[in-house]
Amino acid sequence: MQAMHPDIERVLITEDEMRERVAQMGQAITRDYAGQEAGIIVVSVLRGAAIFMADLVREIHLPLEMDYMAISSYGSGVKSSGVLNVQKDVSSDIAGKHVIIAEDIIDSGLTLSKTIEHLRAMGPASVQVAALLHKNTSNQVEIDARYVGFEIEDEFVVGYGLDYAERYRNLPYLGVLKPAVYATVDGQ
Ligand code: PRP
After folding, report:
1. Is any atom of ligand 1 closer than 6 Å to the C-beta of 78?
2. Rounded to whole angstroms, how far apart are CA atoms 102 and 112?
3. Active site includes 163?
4. How high is the pLDDT of residue 137?
5. E strands within the chain?
């Protein structure tokens, strides 16, 4: 097993736990969507969700398409204003299809609520959410996520796609970052 990164205080979800839970989520989706007439399209919002998406789709044993959106975020400003600034929209025509949004984390819920609204306006057959992580924070927009991997506390987590200052996305586990690290990076 790989040694823990020195900037990580503790591992919250191991690589094995992650694999097992993502497989369960894929099985649930496979079961729920089996026999559907309309096509399935899994959409992820770059960049954090790319790793979860890649693992999740390989656990869904049904024909599906994959698509990506990119949303710009100016620090926390865009999120608090609740405006969705779409840098890259889905490439496919999603009208009449079953959309599953693969998201890495629901924090305030603003990104997802706006993304759902945006995709619904394109006339899909349905829109559901598969979120790997759901953070227990007080100021959440209520998101009805059908598939949730893990409920986590309000801690600074990185790895498995999640970054701090664009680092740590490639760690295969989810870890809590050492507080000293934010001080270092912020101080640059
Ligand atoms: C993260 C994450 C979610 C969003 C969740 O993205 O990937 O999309 O924040 O936060 P919310 O529920 O408070 O809206 P981020 O903007 O950090 O971009 P990234 O995916 O490129 O890391």
Report:
1. no
2. 10
3. no
4. 83
5. 8-13, 40-46, 65-72, 85-88, 98-106, 126-135, 147-152, 157-158, 174-177
With a 6 Å cutoff on the Cβ, whether 109 touches ligand 1 is: yes
For residue 47 and ligand 1, the question of a CB distance below 6 A is answered with: yes
- The H or E element that residue 110 is part of is helix 110-120
At residue 135, what are phi and psi to the nearest 5 degrees? -90, 135
| Cα gap 70→6, rounded to integer Å | 31
What is the best residue among 46, 73, 168 to mutate for testing ligand 1's pocket, by most ligand atoms within 8 Å of CB?
73
Give the tens place of pLDDT for each residue, 77-89.
445 556 788 999 9
Contact 141, 109 (CB under 8 A): yes
- Both structure tokens of 25: 């989520």
